[in-house]
Specification:
The complex is a heterodimer.
Chain A (H helix, E strand, L loop, with lengths): L1 H9 L4 H11 L4 H13 L1 H22 L6 H13 L7 H15 L2 H29 L14 H12 L4 H5 L4 E6 L5 H10 L2 E6 L4 E6 L6 H12 L4 E7 L1
Antiparallel strand pairs in A: 1-3, 1-4, 2-3
Helix pairs in contact in A: 2-3, 2-4, 3-4
Chain B lengths: L1 H19 L2 H17 L10 H19 L2 H16 L2 H7 L2 H10 L3 H12 L4 H8 L3 H21 L8
Helix pairs in contact in B: 1-2, 1-3, 1-7, 2-3, 3-8, 7-9, 8-9
Classes of the chains: A alpha+beta, B mainly alpha.
């Protein structure tokens, strides 16, 4: 037995064997964790070693937790020393980090989740609007392929006014808007689906959980707007919907 | 600063105490660490966790403390710690308490082995983070912990505790 142990001690450890302690503490990357799990499942010796590692892990935590902490006077001494230091301007990185951190910690988890979701939505909507604008303003470039290369600029200038759509007045008209409050149990996926189905975008979030939405990209008659609002009020995830300027 | 201190001072203190093995020295150490943090906050690049940065500073300062001590004193200390464990095998066996023997043997490891065991098991640092704190390649981190564990097994065997590995 002793001879065997000695032999094992002299052996070079395998890569998986070396990773076992980090597997126990859960600090391995997913790929390595999977490799270790697979090896543990097929190698009983490795599993035995892993059990030993788990004991070491527990004992180390127990040992360290038993060390206690520094006495309160350490903190007093530290802050007295800091007070005696010349006044420093905190670094820009630290100041910015602190401001951002304070802002986010001041939000409730629910508000934070909503804010993040709305930010994603806003980005997607913005990307959509940009894509539409680009698509609309794009001249028919494939038509210019047959044009003479001697006069590319003049041809482009000549084509541009004709290519512009003659619907500017309709695009700039205000589409209907509404103040909407979603049901407290509304899921993000439901809200997204609703916004999609109404071709709506969130303009801003008002006080009291109300959001100002804009519907579609064109103006509507009063009847059309009223019908849309009535339909919106019947949605399960909408608890309030009123017309807004 | 108070938030940072409140969040990290206990772990920094324990890490320092395990390295310097002296409460007063560990207390002075955390003061030096946090004062340095206050003075050099601009140097923190945000690429690693704050705790990793703090532990790296603590380690650096602990090594300075250890270097200031006489070599002979250090050797005696290490030898005593190991002897303590080895002299007491009957008690450890009688108690049949592997955990207690383990904890005792953990204190008998060399500073180099103690720090790596603590960083991985107690501070739950990844291979990359330990490499950053200790300033060694990642492969060395892995092998150093392996040999620390083997040393621990030897100390335990000397104390009459056989765990089936290695």
């Amino acid at each position: 037995m002793m001879a065997l142990s000695k032999k094992m001690l002299e052996q070079e450890p395998s890569e998986i064997e070396l990773l076992l302690p980090w597997h126990a503490t859960g600090t391995l990357h997913a790929r390595d964790a999977r490799r270790v799990e697979e090896a543990l499942a097929r190698d009983p010796q490795l599993a035995k070693q892993y059990a030993v590692i788990c004991e070491e892990y527990a004992a180390t935590v127990h040992l360290n937790e038993g060390l206690g902490g520094p006495p309160p006077r350490a903190m007093l001494k530290l802050f007295a020393a800091i007070d005696a230091e010349p006044v420093r301007k905190p670094s820009a990185w630290f100041a910015a980090r602190a401001r951002i951190s304070n802002f986010f910690t001041s939000l409730s988890p629910r508000t934070l989740a909503w804010s993040a979701s709305l930010a994603v939505l806003a980005l997607l909507l913005q990307a959509g609007v940009i894509a539409v604008m680009v698509a609309k303003n794009q001249p028919a470039t494939y038509e210019t392929a047959s044009l003479s290369t001697n006069e590319p600029e003049s041809m482009t200038r000549a084509l541009a006014p004709e290519a512009a759509p003659p619907q500017r007045a309709a695009e700039t008209a205000t589409p209907p808007r509404a103040l909407v409050r979603f049901a407290p149990d509304a899921r993000m996926a439901d809200v997204t689906a609703l916004l999609d189905s109404y071709h709506a975008q969130i303009l801003d979030g008002a006080e009291g959980g109300l959001f100002r939405l804009q519907f579609g990209g064109r103006s509507m008659t009063n009847d059309e707007a009223a019908a849309l609002l009535a339909r919106l009020q019947k949605e399960k995830i909408v608890s309030l919907a009123v017309a807004a300027p | 600063m108070q938030v940072l201190y409140g969040r990290h001072h206990v772990r920094v203190f324990r890490f320092g105490l395990r390295l310097v093995r002296d409460e007063q020295a560990a207390e002075d150490l955390i003061n030096e660490v946090f004062l340095d943090v206050w003075r050099q906050a601009g140097k923190f690049e945000g690429r690693s966790a704050v705790s990793t940065w703090l532990l790296a500073i603590t380690r650096f300062k602990a090594l300075s403390v250890l270097r200031r001590r006489k070599d002979a004193e250090l050797e005696d200390e290490a030898a005593n710690a190991i002897e303590d464990t080895a002299d007491d095998p009957e008690v450890a066996t009688q108690k049949k308490d592997t955990s207690e023997a383990l904890r005792k043997c953990l204190t008998g490891l060399s500073p180099e082995h103690r720090e790596i065991v603590d960083l991985v098991y107690y501070h739950e640092k990844s291979v990359e983070e330990v490499a950053e704190i200790v300033g060694i390649p990642e492969n060395t981190v892995k092998t150093r912990l392996f040999y620390a564990r083997k040393k621990l097994a030897e100390l335990l065997r000397a104390a009459g505790v056989e765990r089936g590995w290695p």
